[in-house]
Design goal:
This protein is an alpha+beta fold. It is 36% helix and 23% strand. The chain has a four-stranded antiparallel β-sheet, with no helix packed on it. The model has no long low-confidence stretch (mean pLDDT 80).
Amino acid sequence: MKRITNILKHFVLLNLLLLSLSSFLFANHLANHHNIKVEHLSPEDGVSFSLVYSIFQDSKGFMWFGTLFGLCRYDGNQFTTYRYDPG
């Protein structure tokens, strides 16, 4: 009976070790595939607004900013501002 208990303990420990290792490897794999790029943009970069009401990224990768002055699109290099023209 003691031999069976010993075998079961080793089996459980081995499974826990393998589960821990696979969890670590999976988490590492996920971390490598979610690279986030953050940039600080200033007036020197063409930012003409200081208050942003909303931010959206479209399917083409453009960043859109809803501001007091209109809608601004950022393509990664420059801003284009679209203003409301009632006429």
